[in-house]
Every structure is written in C-alpha cells, then in structure tokens.
Amino acid sequence: MSQAGGRMSRRKLFGLGAAGAAVIGAGAVTTRSLLEEPPVAHAASTSDPYPFYGGHQAGVVTPAQDRLHFVAFDVITDKKAELVDLLQEWTAAAARLTQGKEAGAFGAVGGAAEAAPDDTGEALGLPASGLTLTIGFGPSLFDDRFGLAGKRPAPLADLPKFPGEQLIPEISGGDICVQACAHDPQVAVHAIRNLARIGFGKVSVRWSQLGFGRTSSTSRAQATPRNLLGFKDGTNNMKLEDADLLRDHLWAAGADGTAWMAGGTYMVTRKIRMTIETWDRASLAEQEQIFGRDKGEGAPLGRKAEFDAVDFAAKGPDGQPMIKDDSHVKLAHPSNNGNAHLLRRGYNFVDGSDGLGRLDAGLFFIAYQRDPRKQFVPVQMNLARHDALNEYIKHVSSGLFACPPGVQDAGDYWGRTLFA
C-alpha cells in the first residue's frame, strides 16, 4: 500500500516505465522543458500521440479532438490509501493509453490465461489517435471521508440554481471525472472502459456522456465548428496561442489561495438538450437574430467576416440595433460579463430519441476557467435570465470539478498535490 501524498510506489512506477519511454521515443520534449510552460504540441496527424507529462494536464488547451467520452465516478471506498492507490494506478494506465499502448504491462493477451487481462483489447491495432485524459475532483470529494474538507478550493463553491434549468441529479455531479478526447471514438471509449475496470471496488460510474463533432476550437489552427443548431460555435473562444488570456483567465495560481491547485484549472460541464424539431421550423431571420450572427459565415450581424469585432452599436435600416439585447452573442460577450473569459471545449451529442419521435440531442458543454464564481456563473446567469435561445434549449445536467496540475514525471500521479 502506498503512502497517501507520497511519490508513486515502485510497483506502479515499474508499470509506467514503458509508457514513459514511449513518450520520449515519440519525440516529445523532456519533462524539465514541459514544466517550463511549453507551447502545446500540434500532433503531426490525427493518429499521433500528445505528451502526457507537463505542468498542466493535457486535454485543456490541447487542440480539440473530434470525439469525447466523459465519465463521472462516485468513490465507494472509504479508505484514503485505497483512493491514492487508485489514482496512482490510473496515472500509470493513462500514461500508457495516451501513447497508444495497452492499459497494463501484460496487455490484453500477454498475461496468464487463468487471469483477467490487463487490457480489454478493443483498441488493439489502433494508434494513439491524439488521446488525452483529463481528471477533475468534484465538491463531493471534499467531505469528511478522506480528510480533504480543509483543502476544498474556494472557487469550487457549489454552483447556484440558474433560472429555467431542469437538472437531473442522476446525471449531475460526481466525486471524480475523467474527460477522454480522441480522434477515434473507440480509443476514447477504450480508455474510459479500462479506467473503470481498474477502479472496480473503489469507484463506480455515476454517469457518462459520449460526444461527437467538437463545438469549439482551442487553437487558431482549427476552423470553427458548428453546433446542432447549425451555427458556428465558440468563435471568440480562448485559444492555446493566447498566452496572456490563459495566464489570467484559465490557470489557477498559488496566489489564488489554494497551493495544491497551482497550474490546474476548474471545469464546468452542462448537458444542454435542444428542441431540434421546433428550431428547424424557425425562420432564418429569427435564428440569426437569436444568435446575433449570420448562419453562413458566422459574422456578427452588421459585419462581413466571422472574426470581425462585434459592433453592438450598429443599426439596421429600421434604425434598430442589428444585434438585439437578448441575443446570445451579446449576453455571452466578455464586455457584458465583467470581462469574463472561458475556454470552451464542448461536443454535440445525440442519445437516440425520447420516445415521442424527437431527437434526444444537443450540446455537452465543457468550459475551463480560473474561477467559476467570476467566470461561468455570471455568464450563465446572464444567459439564463435573458437569452432568446432559452426557448429552444434546457439544461439537464451539471458538473463542477477542480482539475489539478499536470503529472510531472513517471514518479508523479494525478492529484498528488492534493494528498501531499
């Protein structure tokens, strides 16, 4: 049994060694340089791996991949040492999986025939596909089970109830979350499946969500994608190239008052169901007024190109503002929310039909920030109260998680700074 808060045990460190070597062999920069705030690498192709080690977790400013498998776990052990052991085992597996390796040292077919395999096997032969795994700790983890109450960060304050939300408790919250992003859905599902397998008896899956078609760009090298309402989504998103914005609005710092979160960030998730069929009957003019952008180019109304600055003073031929006060773009704009910026990393979802002939579809919203109280909460409150888009959407799930700093090297593990 490992010591809570210590470096990774020799057993888990041995299991991680091959993955660590794979990182170096793949041409990644060294751990030392990663800890000195390097630029995030762009994979040469969608098959290639991203580095696992670094000062920040991958999967935040990493150029957004095409597929998502997100899971929230409840911790079912009441032993702190078992939880730390699990985090160490998960880290070892994550380091291997993100480099296109199998979850365990013996893999799906290399162990004893009488024992369960070290990997489930459905990703055999598949490349890394840009897989990133990002972990976060929910407010419920900081109760009296593991002595963590005094380490709960102030920004991890429970979200308020927003007007109009219809949250389903069974698909909200969770002690721990893991976000798996990849270009191949089988790779993302395989990663989550193996973490759940490793966690058997210590954690149980609370809820999960599959996503396709990223709805945000996190790099200027990426084109802006579209949501299921047909509009470009996340045009003004923070990008990995925005060093000053990331420093001020994304990454937690020691000066924020929680030393163990320095280099980390805070994640908010919202499952937003869209009434697709009703929206599809709305006129183009109404749709564009609701968003405040044209549907084709994505330009702010009154302008020509997607990235033109929004002009809230622009008037139409009738003398009325081109961009309405209840438009989505105006209500979400930093200038109307105390200069609050978010790094969005959401995905479209379609979960079949609802039994009434309507698609169960919408947006699985994910946003990262330095302090949700100052960023997500004011923006969402503004939208919940006034957004014309609310006629066509409803929020049914919510999550809030503290994502710790990155894993430094093969002897480190997810959340070590919390348990130190």
Automatic annotation (TrEMBL):
Major localisation: other
InterPro entries reported for this sequence: Dimeric_a/b-barrel, Dyp_perox_C, Dyp_perox_N, Dyp_peroxidase, EfeB/EfeN, TAT_signal
Cofactor, free-text remark: Binds 1 heme b (iron(II)-protoporphyrin IX) group non-covalently per subunit.
SUPFAM superfamilies for the chain: Dimeric alpha+beta barrel
EC top class named in words: oxidoreductase
Cofactor: heme b
Signal peptide: none
Reactions listed under catalytic activity: heme b + 2 H(+) = protoporphyrin IX + Fe(2+)
Residue stretches making up the Dyp-type peroxidase C-terminal domain: 224-407
Compartment(s) of residence: Cell envelope
Dyp-type peroxidase N-terminal domain boundaries: 57-212
Family statement drawn from the similarity comment of this UniProt entry: Belongs to the DyP-type peroxidase family.
Name recorded for this polypeptide: Deferrochelatase
